[in-house]
Amino acid sequence: MPEDSRYGVVELRQYTLHPGQRDTLIELFDRELVEPQEAVGMHVIGQFRDLDDPDRFVWLRGFADMDSRLKGLTGFYGGPVWAAHRNAANATMIDSDDVLLLRPDSPFLPPQTPRPPVDSVLTPQSRVAITVCPLPAPDDGDFAQFFREAIVPALDACGGSPVAALRTEHSRNTFPKLPVREGENVFVWISTFDSASDYAEYAERLQKSDLPVQLRDRLADAPQELRLQPTSRSRLR
């Protein structure tokens, strides 16, 4: 995908791993599995440690559209790189099916930060927060409008301005070898922070704001807040 292209489809992937295996998977992923995916037209937006679950690996993958997704997934998972490394990768995993298929609610461009080289070992001190809001029904635009008019100003005031907003992509999963969560209606936003202390200050301000109360009446369940640390090669950081 050209660097100035917008993502049309995004996967939010959450993997449950065997105890103690997260760093093993991250080392393999960052060393062997990033560039080969991008070589077939997919884009590894960011990969993260879940700071609230030591056995959870979270990553975001982008595509130009659903046709590009099918082509890219077919090329990568049917190709020699995955064949060489799938056993080692799969050995770290208990479950890899917690996947939300999303589309941007507003233009979502690749991160401006260049990807660190393969031999990079410096773990960023930044934080990424991904908020997943379960909706009671497919959004007809009301929640997206509420997001723009009420949520964004509240996030700005708390120091967590969103860098992306996404909603469920309801297209059929045309690559069933990789399942996605079916029947979901969600709205997702992503915020980035320079440090753990910046995130902590944001979270404290957010809890003191009236946004949690405003959200409660509009959601099917409590939002999921992913508190993430980028890996050494994550572009989103």
TrEMBL record:
Residues 10-104 form the NIPSNAP domain. InterPro entries: Dimeric_a/b-barrel, NIPSNAP. It comes from the Bacteria. Pfam families: NIPSNAP. SUPFAM superfamilies: Dimeric alpha+beta barrel. This is NIPSNAP family containing protein. It comes from Amycolatopsis taiwanensis.
